[in-house]
Amino acid sequence: MLKLLRPAMTRILTPLGRALVRRGIGPNAVTAIGTLGTVVSALLFFPLGQLPVGAVVITVFVLFDLLDGLVARMGGGGGSTWGAFLDSTLDRVADAAIFAGLILYFVSTGDALLTAVTLFCLVAGLLVSYAKARAEGLGLTCDVGLAERPERLVVVLVAACFGGLGVPYILAAGMWLLAAASAVTVVQRVVHVYRQTRER
């Protein structure tokens, strides 16, 4: 579903992309700004319990993940192997900051169970990304799974936003759902790679 929405979001962001290119701002700078904004927002708003504000601000910066590729395609410079590596690496930094912010929030509220669940989401999310990167480094494909990065971000940000607005149980439900979906995705990717190695 999220992949189907990408073309629409690209059309919306195109004018902003053109403006950045005209000002000489390249995709790597866009990537760095998006990551910095996400990290600062997550570690500032979430631990203070300002979940709705944090979720909205982080969503704005997450859109930079679409914008950097758009700027590169428009000739903003920096669209390269280095740019792809930087983007993937900083995505992990941003994801870690989001979950770290929520972990600090749950610690401050004394909720040990959700602290542990969110920590599991953080680790499982990194494993999902690592499995794909390692498989592709071995010349295999690994573009499968129930919960890829966009889906994980939607679940955690929506749950944080509405949980912070007082909707009962949605934050806990979101974290448990994300934990389960991330675990399933790791297993799916391991099985997918195993099947490819058996066919060789």
TrEMBL record:
Entry keyword annotation includes Nucleotidyltransferase: no
Statement: the UniProt record of this protein carries the keyword Magnesium: yes
Active site annotation, chain numbering: 91 (proton acceptor)
GO molecular function, one term: phosphotransferase activity, for other substituted phosphate groups
The protein's required cofactors: Mg(2+)
Pfam family, one: CDP-OH_P_transf
Pathway noted in the entry: Phospholipid metabolism; phosphatidylinositol phosphate biosynthesis
Binding site for a CDP-1,2-diacyl-sn-glycerol: 28-31, 69, 73, 80
Annotated transmembrane regions: 51-72, 112-131, 152-170
Top EC class of this enzyme: transferase
Residues that hold Mg(2+) 1 according to the record: 65, 68, 87
Cellular component terms per the entry's GO annotation: endomembrane system; plasma membrane
Cofactor remark from the record: Contains a di-nuclear catalytic Mg(2+) center.
Alphabetical GO biological process terms: phospholipid biosynthetic process
Positions of Mg(2+) 2 binding: 65, 87, 91
Superkingdom of this protein's organism: Bacteria
Subcellular location: Cell membrane; Endomembrane system
Family statement drawn from the similarity comment of this UniProt entry: Belongs to the CDP-alcohol phosphatidyltransferase class-I family.
NCBIfam families: PIPSynth
HAMAP family with a match to the protein in the record: PIP_synthase
Function as written in the Swiss-Prot or TrEMBL entry: Catalyzes the conjugation of the 1'-hydroxyl group of D-myo-inositol-3-phosphate (also named L-myo-inositol-1-phosphate) with a lipid tail of cytidine diphosphate diacylglycerol (CDP-DAG), forming phosphatidylinositol phosphate (PIP) and CMP. PIP is a precursor of phosphatidylinositol (PI) which is an essential lipid required for cell wall formation.
Subunit structure comment from the entry: Homodimer.
Protein name: Phosphatidylinositol phosphate synthase
Species per Swiss-Prot/TrEMBL record: Nonomuraea glycinis
